[in-house]
Amino acid sequence: MTSDRIHTTHAGSLPRTPELIAANAARTFAPDGFTLERTPEFEGLLTDAVVDLVQRQKTLGITIPGDGEYGKAMSNAVDYGAWWTYSFQRTSGLELTEYNPILAEPVRSEPGRVRLTSFADRRDWTRFATAYQDPEGGIQLGRNATGFPSATGPMSYTGHTALASDIANLKAGLGAADVPSGFITALSPGSASRIGNDYYGSEEEFIYAWADVLREEYTAIVDAGLIVQIDDPSIAENWDQINPEPSIEDYQAFTRIRVDALNYALRGLPEEQVRVHVCWGSWHGPHTTDIEFRHIVELVLGINAGSYSFEAANARHEHEWALWQDTRLPDGKVLVPGVVSHATNVVEHPELVAQRIERFAALVGRENVVASTDCGLGGRLHPQIAGAKLDALARGAQLASDRLFARSATLI
Fold first, then answer.
1. 372 SS3 class
2. Which residue ranges form the domains of the chain, and what is each CATH number?
3. What gap in Å lies between CA 167 and CA 375, rounded to an integer?
4. Residue 411's pLDDT is what?
5. C-alpha angle 147/150/155, rounded to 5°?
6. Which of 127, 130, 158, 163 lies deepest, with the highest CB count within 10 Å?
7. DSSP letter at 140?
């Protein structure tokens, strides 16, 4: 990677084409009721879509592109869960049961015994229940392409064909666009384990079983010469899914198990090819019960990754750039802050984007900053608006680069 500019990337999901959404909606389910069948026609459409997407990212000014998560099924234009539900398609030992993590009965935690409740029982969702349940309230939660299964037997990875397709499609796009590197997202063990468990003897055992499963994805992506982005929103957003609110110390202990399991899954992999993404949940709600980043930042930095992607542009978390005044970024690590938000249709001005980038550059060094989006744009924003945000991101990064690197050249 060159050191004469601020590089640009995004958090993974980009809007699917209407053709791809329709093709996903037309796919049939396997006998298990949640695995979507793949056909040669679908595979051809997917390859063409990814190759075109990589070129569009390059044209917009994104220097570290991804496959847009196009291989992760999205059958509706609004879908906040494709980054997670894809894992069900690639794991054995799962079955559809009566348990649904979204609508399950509430679970209550107590000091020293932290447990996740259902998604519908989140503290922010219940505090603003009227707004969340109002179809005209502006909070869309979308629809997933598949149901949520539970673990009913020993899990193992079965996604080799699908993952090989993802890797081949992105590499085809990178080659056609003459871009040296790109990234593919993969789920973290902590986030994956938020489904039903009717087989493993403990929560920790279940999380580590997921670590063994998902390590196969991480390893294959890295071995292909690509960057693997580990999506682990659970590190931050689990806080809101614990009722009543736990102590900070209890939550940190609860989260440390998940960080340790992720590091176990990443063991031996080159950190420079590993990026971890943390966010507070991409739905467009009030987020008044989000945990402050300062309470989890050391846990995040404890993940064996070379770079760290996090929300830094939305109205609930932008002020937290200041924590890097007192938080030391370990040597050789890179920050990938969001400098445009997925949570608003307002397109950021490039000058604002540049200012956000320069804040981080001043604190951790310009060579340690890659400009990104807060979270995925696909399934959350209209394609036209998502494209305008990526354009603003690239233009802002260029402004920041002109100032940061020209200023240095003047001083030399």
1. strand
2. 7-411 (3.20.20.210)
3. 22
4. 44
5. 115
6. 163
7. -
